[in-house]
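Hey L., structure's done. Input below.
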Amino acid sequence: MNTISIAISDLLMLKLQKVAAEMNVSIEELVLMNIESSIAQRENPAANTERDICNKNDEIAIEVIDKFYTLATEWQSEVAGMSSTAQMSQHPAYQEIINMGSKVVPLLLSELQKNPLYWLAVLNAITGENPIKPEQRGRVKQMASAWIKWGEDRGYAIYER
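Output:
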């Protein structure tokens, strides 16, 4: 195991701390994720086509990440205890996440590992795709796995938490 030491500004450190906390990972894990993603992209230039440019996780603006996790937290706290998924999906914060479009797909795919049920409909609404096979319907973990495989097949880096 090797160690790397870097100097960063206080502002950048605060941003890293915030993103790491929102993603429930350490700063070290967050930096390592981005290093691994950058290396994987260089090793697999086929994933770097113009069509796949939005798939590069390390190109997600910090503002997009902040907005996504703010909306997700707001939505989860305000729909807690609701039994109607139809009502939950009509919440303004949920709709705003959908309106953020394809730039949040990597975040959604990563979130599937923690809360698979919540994000399946958003992925479908944003991408217009449905990788779930008929025999997987109703089986939340299998449905989430189908989406994660879909993302991996399209070059998204999906981090386990």
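The first helix runs from residue 10 to 23. Confidence is low (pLDDT under 50) at residues 45-56.

-- N.
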